[in-house]
Design brief:
The protein has 227 residues and is an alpha/beta fold. The chain has eight helices and eight strands. It has one domain: Alpha/Beta hydrolase fold, catalytic domain (Rossmann fold), CATH 3.40.50.1820. Helix 6 links the parallel strand 7 and strand 8. Keywords: Hydrolase.
Length: 227
């Protein structure tokens, strides 16, 4: 069973779940926009059989603080601060969608901190056609102001993000959700071409791969992490 914990990083209280133990490298799981650490429960528990696993609520999500400032780069800095706070010198990172963007920003900023990197249906940092997001009705499990701020940066990313992919030294698995994903296939080709040690596979379950096919996703990731 996972422990539910908090740590304060960069003045922001971050909630996270911790499970597992063992000699294998720790894994940090980063969720998609509007999700939370609990989204990884089945993946977390499977991976935690032989290693420590941490699933983080990014700022503005779940039980983490909702500060006034949001961006993928601030989330990157939060993750690096999280690693420092827990004394995790080197980890494997698994990120879905926005979490994948944050993960590759972490791996580009401090390449020595990431041993292996898994990017699940995460967009390349390329300009894309933007559409105004529509706020869901009712109480939200995330800060709507965060969605507006982050979506704007994902639609018009800093060109330095693309160049930064070439600094990543982690062995990287890029997972594309196939033709039912809302993201273009070319986006995944771009990421794979830019990261020096990356390979691309398709698990054709759409954008929410680990939710649609948790066993196949987890076995694929586990095999990559231990290869």
């Amino acid at each position: 069973m996972a422990e539910h914990l908090t740590v304060t990083v960069n003045g922001v209280r971050l909630a996270y779940e911790a499970a597992g133990a063992g000699a294998a490298p720790p894994v940090v799981l980063l969720h998609a926009l509007g999700e939370r650490a609990a989204d990884w429960a089945r993946v977390r528990d499977a991976l935690a059989q032989d290693r420590p696993v941490y699933a983080l609520d990014l700022r503005g999500h779940g039980l983490s603080d909702r500060p006034a400032q949001y961006s993928p780069e601030l989330m990157r800095d939060d993750v690096l601060g999280f690693l420092d706070a827990l004394g995790l010198d080197r980890v494997d990172l698994v990120g879905h969608s926005l979490g994948g963007v944050v993960a590759y920003l972490v791996a580009a900023e401090q390449p020595h901190r990431v041993g292996r990197l898994v990017l699940e249906d995460a967009p390349a940092p390329l300009p894309r056609e933007s559409a105004a997001p529509v706020r869901p009705e009712g109480e939200l499990d995330f800060d709507w102001a965060m969605v507006l701020a982050v979506r704007a940066e994902l639609d018009r990313p800093d060109p330095a993000w693309l160049a930064g992919l070439e600094r990543i030294t982690a062995s990287t698995l890029v997972i594309y959700g196939g033709p039912t994903s809302h993201l273009a296939a070319a986006s995944f080709d771009e990421i794979t071409a830019r990261i020096p040690d990356a390979r691309l596979i398709t698990l054709p379950y759409g954008h929410l791969i680990h939710a649609a096919a948790p066993e196949e996703f987890t076995s694929t990731v586990a095999a990559f992490l231990t290869a």
